[in-house]
## 1
Amino acid sequence: MRRCKIVAVDGPAGSGKSSVCSKTCQRIGWTYVNTGFLYRSVAYITRQRRQSLASDRDLSEVIDAFCEDLHWDPETQSVQFQNLDISSHLNSDQAGQDASLIAKNPLVREKLLPLQRKLALRAPVGAIVDGRDIGTVVFPDADLKIFLTASLDERARRRLQQLHTNAANWDSELANIKQSILLRDEQDAARGAAPLKQAADAIVLDTSGLDLAGTIDRLVELIRERGLIES
Ligand code: C5P
């Protein structure tokens, strides 16, 4: 039997998973595991080594090295590989698109699966694990499954605000961001291997009309209602 409790949070790009999950974990004293960073790291390292994102052999080599030498700090979410902190390179749009590209590859998914489980199951009390296939593949037996979503307009607006609030060319930047989010969601949902999809037993949490604090309150309430934390 599993020792720690698991809440699976899946959803499309830009739905606010990482902000909501990390702040919820701070509030309830749980561990936050953002599985997207694994796909982003593997894509980043592969590019850095001038290896190919399309080659099974190259990706396999990188993943083996990464699994052996990853130092991940759940408190700060920093990622170190071969004594270098690569965290600041993982949040770019390019890293997200590259991650989505390699995430289509069943070999990559298969090789990263045990690592995702290992990082989450190390949590002393409970873990909120976010991604695209957490409730369907990584932890189909999760104690609670959430599908976090928001309208495309809302997700693009939030992402743009994060980048630079006073952009002079707001409208054209918004259109670019929408396009990039849409492309990634389509790619993630259309792939054969563990596509982005709502688990049959997931609760949908649409944050379109909610701010961050309201969304965290709602998630904490759902975790409490499920009996995973004390009231
Ligand atoms: O969540 P994040 O945007 O960091 O994820 C980057 C990409 O990694 C996603 O677009 C998706 O293709 C891939 N991913 C995945 N399965 C996960 C987490 C991320 O396929 N569990």
## 2
Amino acid sequence: MRSAGIVGLGMAVPQRVLTNADLEKMVDTSDQWILERTGIRERRVAGEDETSSTLGAAAAREALESAGLDPLDVDLIVCATTSPDMLFPSTACLVQHQLGCVRAAAFDLSAACSGFAYGLAVTSQLVASGAFRNALLIGVDVLTKFLDWTDRSTCVLFGDGAGAVVLAPVESGRGLLGFDLGADGSGADLLTIPGGAGKHPISEESLREKLRYIRMDGQQVFRFAVRVMGESAARAVEKCGLTPDDVDWFVPHQANIRIIDSATRRLGIDPARVYVNVDRYGNTSAASIPIALYEAYHSGCLKEDDTVVTVGFGAGLTWASCVLVWTMPPAGRQNRQSAAAAEGVGAR
Ligand code: ACO
């Protein structure tokens, strides 16, 4: 099999910024509590007209442009999301139409916050096998539309956004080297949006019981995340015949700075090699890893031939880690978002 690597990158976030100070006016919380417990300072919130398909299409458009591809060059669109525009059709089909990628097959992938890393493993295989040549992989979520804004234990954590990559054949030994995917359905109840689908359809009762909102056992999810992130990333690195010392950049799912710090310690990676932007976006679910990759690349941290490890965890419960050799040459141009990224915190 040939290899598949990232040859294009894009991101899109809503304009509206919601700060911790704004949240102090909405629920009984404080900037200090949110910052100390999560590392989040602000997040983006989608407007009425901004959905997974519109944000996903904007990120994908930029990814195609940076890869120098036309919409007609795209053979496959995979959209990782758990906050689709509708139960069906898939968000990938809506993006296909918005972009005019009329030749592309399209489907959604549901693995919550692990969705992008799951998608990177799966989509890369489809490209490496020769089944598809140019694939768009989008990670997008608008979980603020599923938040109970009176529940301080969840509403301070999430933000909206989209990130997209183009995957295409690259020379062997570069691109995706290996991955580790896993799931534990016995933890399904720990993090869920129970209403609005087959089990609890929309009804007066389900609305009264607030079943359309995110429910989470924060402490259990925290314990799971800390354990699984380090273990899964270590397994993926080992499967590639590498050690943590070989890793140039660790780009984890951005849910909580304490989870990231614990996983970093467990994996034995130098904290200076960890990319962090949770402070500016909160937990954007399936979008967090591609947004972090985008900012790490455009701020000059990620360089061609760097070995990068990404790891996600989330509802399901699910987890996914990927090891890749970065295949994009230095960015030729800086757009508004990347210029902002360059000024941002990022690497520590
Ligand atoms: N502001 C102020 N106080 C709060 C807030 C808030 N926003 N939220 C909870 N508290 C209070 C609690 O009521 C509790 O008060 P008490 O001691 O009087 O009972 C106290 O703070 C401590 O609460 P804990 O839940 O123990 O706080 P913890 O340190 O565990 O932090 C947090 C909570 C941030 C939610 C943490 O558990 C966490 O990050 N969990 C993982 C969540 C996560 O990453 N989920 C996304 C997974 S990805 C996906 O698939 C969507």
